[in-house]
Amino acid sequence: MATLKQTPLYPLYAKYGAKTIDFGGWDLPVQFSGIQQEHDAVRGQAGLFDVSHMGEFYVSGAGALAFLQCMTTNDVSKLETNQAQYSLLCYPDGGVVDDLLVYKLAEERYMLVVNASNIDKDYDWLAQHLTTGEDVSLVNASDETALIALQGPKAETILAKLTAAPIQALRPFRFVQDADVAGVKALVSRTGYTGEDGFELYVSSGDAAAVWEELLEAGAGEGLVAAGLGARDTLRFESRLPLYGQELSAEISPLEAGLGIFVKLDKGEFVGQQALAAQKAQGLPRKLVGIEMIDRGIPRSHYPVYNAAGERIGEVTTGTQSPTFKRNVGLALLQQAYTALETEVFVEIRGKRLKAVVVKTPFYRRA
Question: Is 265 exposed, middle or buried (0-12, 13-18, 19+ CB in 10 A)?
């Protein structure tokens, strides 16, 4: 049996009561104090997440911009230095290799942040598209980089206790490089995966434990709690943020997932552009929608969905009882004909087809 990978914060997990699971080959905390408590803390005060399993690549050189324009769906040319954007890597047929963040560090230098389970695949995909003689350097710095996410309405108050960097002035998807956070050099980004305000701190692996402990101490009086993957998933789900392998995959395009705003079909040629343009022109065969159960039951990933005539029309990608609203809700990829609001559909749960209805998303939106 393969040994599970550990983040630089793994030695601290036991101290804070973590229950860990195998997550894509990593030994990661699913919860510390409890998923509901951690979820509520992020919605009301703040939560601290170890997301050091994520991957970081550096792309640099005179050809870096042209290379990223060719490889990603969003328009990298629109980025200013110290600005980030959400984007996707696609296959030629429009399916998704991965979703990612692109950070512009300087002219001719970028950082890509990719999903942990896709690090090797993404690196190989990018590397195989580099051409001989192209002035582009691609470096995988994932092992040397730790990532800590401080999320929730109290995040700014807590972080301000540990840094003089101008974090209050940061707009979403903007960042500060070389910020001093509790004596440690960090890239501090106003980004996150919870639907709340917050920051992500990129530090060297050797500095991660010190920053984690300093943040928890600074947030002790503000309701800050250590939070795990369980709450991270319920938070992102309520805010309709996609998870690769569920809302996105090699078989699900960004357009079907409702991410067309991040696909700039007119920016110039990129991998997958022709297929996505054709999909848009012909009309999407499927669409990701929200559903709420009418009958009693909780929709779960990959549960099949049927119409009233008993024909299978799609499947649930993510579902749970919403910790915020206590409603049984899900995201489902359905045939286009069944995606209008209030459409009745039937989710098969433990052999029974239970009634649900298509509803508006996101289920949660920060005030």
Answer: middle
Closest listed residue to residue 363, CA positions, set 294, 255, 290 = 290
Q: Which stretch of DSSP H or E encloses residue 234?
A: helix 229-238
CA angle 239, 241, 246 (to 5 degrees): 125
Bridge partners of residue 184, in order along the sequence: 181
Q: What ranges do the domains of the chain cover? A: 10-50+145-238, 285-359
Residue range 10-50+145-238, CATH number: 3.30.1360.120
The pTM score is 0.97
Peptide bond into 8 cis (omega under 30): no
pLDDT tens digits, residue range 128-156?
Answer: 999 877 899 999 999 999 999 999 999 99
The two structure tokens encoding residue 73: 């769906």
- Distance (Å, rounded) from C-alpha 291 to C-alpha 307? 13
Domain spanning 285-359, CATH class = mainly beta
